[in-house]
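Continuing the series of single-chain predictions for the mutant panel. This is the parent chain; the variants come on the following pages.
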Amino acid sequence: MAFLSDRLARIKPSPTIAMTTRAAELRAEGRDIIGLSAGEPDFDTPENIRQAAKAAIDAGQTRYTAVDGTPSLKKAICGKFKRENALDYEPSQITVGTGGKQILFNALMATLNDGDEVIVPAPYWVSYPDMVLLAGGTPVFVECTLEQGFRLTAEALEAAITPRTKWLILNSPSNPSGAAYDHDQMKALTDVLLRHPNVWVLTDDIYEHLVFDGFQFVTPAQVEPKLKDRVLTMNGVSKAYAMTGWRIGYGAAPAPLVKAMAKLQSQSTSNPCSISQYAAEAALNGPQDYIDESREAFQRRRDLVVAGLNDCPGIECPTPQGAFYVYPSIKGLIGKTSAGGTALTDDQAFANALLEETGVAVVFGAAFGLSPHFRVSYATSDDQLTEAVARIRKFCEGCN
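Parent structure:
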């Protein structure tokens, strides 16, 4: 009898973490490495949030809380949805987890039976398919190409739905592409979903506040209120408030689903960190100036990276609407050989050669389900990005 679970064989380690780990190993060896693989803001958590955490510690708020969030944090989350998304929720419809990833994981584990299908537009965040597989479901991938703006179309969604479809996972703005859906594009999708009452929507809005050029963010339940009773709207404080390490995500959904997710969480992690919950409450209820300041910095960095990569031979880099990623095509480099002698047979070979030969760490496109591309996270300093782009350009110029 095998010791390890069969279900563990369904999934693979995170490719983004693997690339970040390899970059760290090379850095430890004394190599000059520029890491563009991790999806993490490089800014400090705002001062008012840090002070709220310190105050919570001093006040002795260090004990267990309710399994899926304190009443005061749930109230703050209801206020956020009302204020920013015109969505009305009660605390019984709110769940708080140890990061947005746990909200997604809990929802899929609590609802999927063997063979249930989950539509996953590609390119996708690397964890979606593995979460579905771990829960016994079947991910159904729908390619959304560069020519489509990396967005799912109504026609493609309609074609992917079957009697076994239980969820559509929708991430806007997207990791890895930065693509986002405007009101009309989202309405086209919700119109399809109205015709299929068996399909629920799991919307990952974690990059909601990182949108550029005046883009107006929308979420499915906001665009089509008739869908609200089968939508789980996930969000969190990690990206908007530079709180990745605090590990607080939250979701809004019908109360029966929230109750089922709490049941699962009660037997896994139990409550999220009490101090982090009070910090998240301060983030949602406090001044929001930081969001505009970080958005301005990220837009400047986006423009720097897009312009620089489009100057590289063999690379085509579209301009994303949000998040802090670009997802360039390297179609023009496939089949060539790097100056270091690596055959660029696919985007993984490209990413590995780029790291080994130039010290720039990116993530290959196959990890996100769409090739030949690579993902750059521009959540680092302007100086680092300028140097990284220069190295990538030199690498591309050396390919033949």
